[in-house]
Amino acid sequence: MTRHRLVLRGREFPIPVVLAPMAGVTNIPFRAQCRTFGPGLIYVSEMVMATALVHGNEKTQKMVAFGDDEDFRSLQIYGSDPEFVARAVRQLCEQDIADHIDMNFGCPA
Fold it and tell me: Which end of the chain, N or C, is more open, meaning fewer C-beta atoms within 10 Å of its C-beta?
């Protein structure tokens, strides 16, 4: 049986599984609890709307925060306007907020 490797930003994850983002659920305490019982996975934060991030929405800013013990930061961006999605991703990269950005193109934001 072939074992597939998942390597992101030079880091190998022993179990190539990503915990899906869940609105109102995958916040900092939930991700910490998951890491306690399922180490080695990638834990994605809550879904973040691209337009809200670009406009500096206060609630959205809190949603892109990570705990001090999170050594790999992953979040999901969603939106329907390609310009705002691009601006949001650029902002996250320039501010070094996330190591992994999951793109959700299915939500009609």
Answer: N
Here the tokens at position 13 are 């994850």
Spell out the domain ranges in the chain: 11-104
Rounded Cα–Cα distance for residues 105 and 11 (Å) = 26
Average pLDDT over residues 31-41: 84
Alpha-carbon distance 9 to 72, whole Å?
A: 9
How are strands ordered across the β-sheet holding 100-104? 18-19, 42-49, 74-78, 100-104
**Cα(69)–Cα(17) distance, integer angstroms:** 20
Q: For 78-109, how does the pLDDT look when each residue is reduced to its tens digit (9 = 90+)?
A: 998 999 999 999 999 999 999 999 998 776 54
CB under 8 Å to 59, separation ≥6 — which residues? 52
- Catalytic residue IDs: 107
